[in-house]
Amino acid sequence: MIDLSRENLKNLTKVFVIFMIYLIYNGVFHALFELLNIQNSIITMFAGDVCFLVFMIVLYWKKIKQNFLDLKKGIWKNFIRIIIGVVVLFIVNMLVGIIGELLFSTANISDDNTQSIYTLSQISFIYTVFKTMIFGVIAEELLFKQSLREVMPNNVLFVISCSLLYAVMNVIYGDLSSPYLLSDALSYFAVSAALAYMYIKNNDNIVLVMFVKFFYNLIPMCIMIAGML
User: How many CB atoms lie within 10 A of CB 43?
Assistant: First the structure.
């Protein structure tokens, strides 16, 4: 259950404001850049994402710093945990792909993470690297894990809520008529749920989760770069 104490109501308001900013900042920057007669969509998205990234880092800097120091105390043990976490994510994604193929005859069983990186790279390679390896790793995990955890101490509610929100946010701006919609949503949900579980099992260490997601994204990124050479 969500604790509705005075302190938690303050945190709930904080989370609500953060998500509202997340939902509208692209539109705000688009309108601002139109006034400046800048029509390049990549520059607009880049500027908005960078500002939101900086905002989230400043907001949760103390937490990030403390979690990083905690990881350094057992660096090799935590490194092994990160590698295991990456392997688990690939297994989860593979299993979800198989399940999606069984449940939805039109489902695409390819790695959804890889597909999203390739799709974004067709717009801009530099922006793809930033969005995948920096923004997606830091800003999104702070948003969907750290901020929600502050108002959801119940583990089950937290895992379900943050994973559902992450899945919805990743598919709602796409083609809602796509035959792959349900399988894509299931894939995003499962990967986020796995990361949320790792987060809980490692004393709510958001930095460890960031490292897991970074290396998880790094592999398809390297494959894409190798294919471009």
Answer: 14
> What is the C-alpha to C-alpha distance for residues 167 and 48, in angstroms, rounded to an integer?
21
| CA 97, chain centre distance (Å) | 19
Q: Are 158 and 26 in contact (CB under 8 A)?
A: no
**Which amino acid does the sequence have at 196?**
A
Low-confidence ranges of the chain (pLDDT < 70): 1-5, 104-122, 173-179, 228-229
Task: Single out the residue of 132, 145, 122 nearest to residue 60, CA to CA.
Answer: 145
pLDDT tens figures, 54-94 = 999 999 999 999 999 999 999 999 999 999 999 999 999 88
Rounded Cα–Cα distance for residues 182 and 100 (Å): 8
Cα 35 to Cα 190: distance, rounded to the nearest angstrom: 41
Looking at residue 40, what DSSP letter applies?
-
Distance separating alpha carbons of residues 68 and 79, to the nearest angstrom: 12
Place of tokens 């939101």: 52
Terminal-to-terminal C-alpha distance of the chain: 51
- pLDDT of res. 107: 47
Q: Indicate the pTM of the whole model.
A: 0.88
What contacts 87, CB < 8 A, 6 or more positions away? none
